[in-house]
Amino acid sequence: MKPFTYERVATPGEALAAMDRNPGARFIAGGTNLLDLMKLEIEAPAHLIDVNGIGLDSIEATAEGGLRIGALVRNTDLAAHPKVREEYGVLSRAIVAGASAQLRNKATTAGNLLQRTRCPYFYNTDMPCNKRRPGSGCAAISGISHNHAILGASGACIATNPSDMAVALRALDATVETLTPDGAKRSIPVADFHRLPGDTPELETALAPGALITSVTLPQPRGGVHIYRKVRDRASYAFANVAVALIATVEAGRVIVDRLAFGGLAHKPWRVEAAEEVFAAGGDAKTDPIADLVLAGATPTEHNAYKLPLVRRTLAATLGDARKGGMS
Amino acid sequence: MHVKLNVNGHDLNCDLDPRTTLLDALREHLGLTGSKKGCDQGQCGACTVFVNGRRINSCLTLAVMHEGDAVVTIEGLGAPGMLHPMQAAFIEHDAFQCGYCTPGQICSAVALTDEAAAGVPSHVTADLCAPMALTATEIRERMSGNICRCAAYPNIVAAIREVAGGKA
Amino acid sequence: MIGAAINRIDGPLKVSGRAVYSYERQEAGPPLYGFIRGAAIGKGRIRHVDVSAAETAPGVHLVWTHLNVPAQGAYVPKPTMFDRPRPQLTSDRITYSGEPVVFVVAETFEAARHAAGLVCIDYEAEPGVFDLRRHADNAEKPETLSIGAPAEIRMGDIDAAMAQGPVIVDERYDTPYHFSQAMEPPAALADWRGGHLTVYVATQMVAQTRTAIADTLMLDEKQVTVDAAFVGGGFGSKLYLHAEGVFAALAARSLGRPVKVAMTRRQVFTLTGHRPEMIHRVRLAANPDGKLTALGHDVNMQGGTEAGPWIEQAATVARSLYAAPSRLTRHYITTLDVKASEAVRGPGELPGLIAFETAMDELAFALGIDPVELRLKNDTDIDPELNIPLSGRRLADCLREGARQFGWDERPRTPASRREGRYLIGYGMAAGIRMHFQGATEVSISIRKVLAPS
């Protein structure tokens, strides 16, 4: 870990001012991803701004009948909140499907959105990586790519975004509320928050440099059956190979897909609205037409091609769970 | 940097490199070696301690971030002759061999009963909105952030069931 | 006391965090902190190294590379294995990924870790061979295994027996690398005082580690004490002396201050050995009644650089398990540019049994005979190769009792035919055998009267 200076701030305004004074600083809240990366010197901020004391840790109703989730709400508290469990169940399910209890107790809403890939080549500073050192190459493309992206990837990077929470937020049409360095409010739909690698895999989110996430807002609840189904190499405490977030209604045994998003497939939650719109007019959800739309343009490697049939089967199982009322 | 940490009820002053994790502050600067370094990257749970009543991985937080917080370690839960019921249950059920994961396991075990009682769901909770029972399946899932290479898992679950069984 | 269920006497210490492991020992007083950095390439050499930024970093007491590490005793491939010297940083050559290239001692762990990364290393990488499957044809057959048994034993004519059959199995099985990965990363704290070195080190072999340290540091054994009061798991990974023990000892002597070193979790993969990857070929020939006429087990295992070959006794299981007139067991080793293997829980027999007993299972299926019956049919009261009576053999009793307890006769006969919820239920069985070393043992017991606290 490189040496750094450290300060605590008490308000969002102080946080932005501290960032403005210290180019190359990082905000630290839960720190469960940032500190991991700092120990390996993948992140090396010269200054840490501890924002744990700036409030932004409550969950409140919005005027529109939705929910505002403070940036500093801990993952555990978000998953356990009665309104989230009752009306945004896919979000609770997604959060408790990820990490461990210890990590969920510390990690925050904003931090979870900002967590970086776990690509083992990104994590190995002896290896070339276009995220860590733009232009140095991508070791994963010619390496072991068992859990890398099959969608939205590029010749520069095939990393995935590891967050389960983000997949649920994408299904829920969440918005990320931020304050730009000059204190102005800026809203970023979660759909646009994470970027695909293209030629600049080092640019990972749409967050302006020096900006501060203040909250995540959810629109009114959509009702229906909420499912988050995660397929991974272990039964617990492992990242997704494929994950499905589904909100659906079930009428007379027919499943009508309302919202559908996938994790483990790309550097952002993968949602294809066309797959949902097919069934907006009625009819029963059938796996293959949906999966065809979701997987359009897929670029699997030799090692992760298994994800294509796995997406189909996981989607089918999820739709089957929905038919049974959501128990899996 | 000067840091005042409240650990097991005592205010302790230290002068620390800001890079010092809470785990290393405890182990290297405060003589509290009960919390263990198994991976230093939040993947094994051997470093689990309580901060303000919640279990966290002390290897993935900085000591300087915890001025004003109440930290409780395995040493604070109980001592030989005055063991916490969970510590005693681990002995009775032979829930350890080498003992290196044990402090983290016990801290997690104590924490999970509080979490379940507070209504925190887990990945295996069938109904998010119904009261939860601490079944063996729930216990295993809630303990999944603590690894044991001696494979004492069945006995760990048995110890936890004895202490937490019937609660939540 | 014997036969009574008693609680572990160290239980209260372990459950309350009062059991003190090597890195945590306090007797020597406040230590300095060492940190190892491993090679970034798999094979090649160090062309140039610049330590200036590391040496001048705050809190740093020493920076060692192959250019300035103290002289150490040379490696000797002693047959006693665990007492071999393990000199570090011996040359500019890199022979496996992660091989130590830098060692730093500093006032704090954070300073040492950071300074190790400040050393600039210019490598010259060379192509290497890392994949057993791709290079299996380069296998060599040694004379003996690491435990001293012959690498090959041949009796009768297995090729003829296989040609005759009538029921044969000739299959290949691949067993993978395994890493012990005990919860406690290997760690050592060394204290040099008055010409005597005390090393608190996580080791499974106290006396041998003492010899290995003494020989590496070119000391008399009497000058070395090894103390391993509590060890956080080993499973084979703490049998040998490793880099952290050597560096802690050397640095404590050089600096005249206690020094402690722990491996990072990632380093445990590269600085301790692992179970070698193996390719097995098992051949079995049997009559329709299940009696074996031939058995053969060839195993080709990955060998590595540094510290001499570790040749596991994987194909020896076939030598003792079952009777058969034609027999051929052979061990091969394919040297790759990877770290040498070491013993991992159940070395030798464990991967060998997976292959051999799987083949027996396939033979049972081919014969249409109960797998338990097949073993019973080929059981033996005399050692099948030495032709001497066994002083005791209760494999048959184990098989019968196991079958009874598990309800073997009620098992589903067709694979994938029984389902419970999300799970398919099947029954399987395998025999197990392992040699054990037997030798004269000395035990000393002392009884001390302990006064009750007043």
Describe this structure in words.
The complex is a heterotrimer of chains A (328), B (168) and C (454). Chain A is an alpha+beta fold and 328 residues long. Among the domains of chain A are: 5-50, Uridine Diphospho-n-acetylenolpyruvylglucosamine Reductase, domain 2 (2-Layer Sandwich); 225-323, 2-Layer Sandwich (Enolase-like, domain 1), CATH 3.30.390. Chain A has helices at 12-21, 34-39, 75-80, 82-87, 89-96, 101-106, 109-114, 164-171, 190-193, 273-277, 287-294, 307-323; strands spanning 5-8, 25-28, 47-50, 59-61, 67-70, 175-179, 185-189, 212-218, 225-231, 242-251, 254-263. Chain A has a 5-stranded antiparallel β-sheet. A 3-stranded parallel β-sheet of chain A has the order 1-3-2, with helices on one face. In chain A, α5 runs antiparallel to α8. Chain A is globular and about 60 Å long. The termini of chain A are far apart. Chain B has a 5-stranded mixed β-sheet, sandwiched between helices. Chain B starts with a strand and ends with a helix. By secondary structure, chain C is α+β, with helices and mostly antiparallel strands. Chain C is 23% helix and 24% strand. Chain C has 12 helices and 17 strands. A 7-stranded mixed β-sheet of chain C has the order 3-5-1-12-9-10-11, with helices on both faces. Chain C has a 5-stranded mixed β-sheet with strand order 7-15-14-13-8, with helices on both faces. In chain C, β16 and β17 form a beta hairpin. The interface between B and C is large, with 48 and 36 residues.
Shape of chain A: globular
> Portion of residues in helices of chain A?
25-40%
- Taking all Cα atoms into account, the compactness measure Rg of chain A is 20 Å
Question: What is the fold named in CATH at topology level of the domain at 225-323 in chain A?
Answer: Enolase-like, domain 1
- Structural class, judged by helices and strands of chain A? alpha+beta
CATH superfamily of the largest domain in chain C: Aldehyde oxidase/xanthine dehydrogenase, molybdopterin binding domain
Approximate strand percentage of chain A: 15-25%
- Structural class designation of chain C: alpha+beta
Strand order of the largest sheet of chain C: 3-5-1-12-9-10-11
Largest sheet of chain A: 5 strands, antiparallel
Count of DSSP H/I helices of chain C: 12
**Domain count of chain C:** 2
Number of continuous helical runs of chain A: 12
Average pLDDT reading of chain C: 95
- For the secondary structure, the number of strands of chain C is 17
Biggest interface, chains and residue tallies: B-C, 48 and 36 residues
User: Radius of gyration of chain C, rounded?
Assistant: 26 Å
CATH class of the largest domain in chain C: Alpha Beta
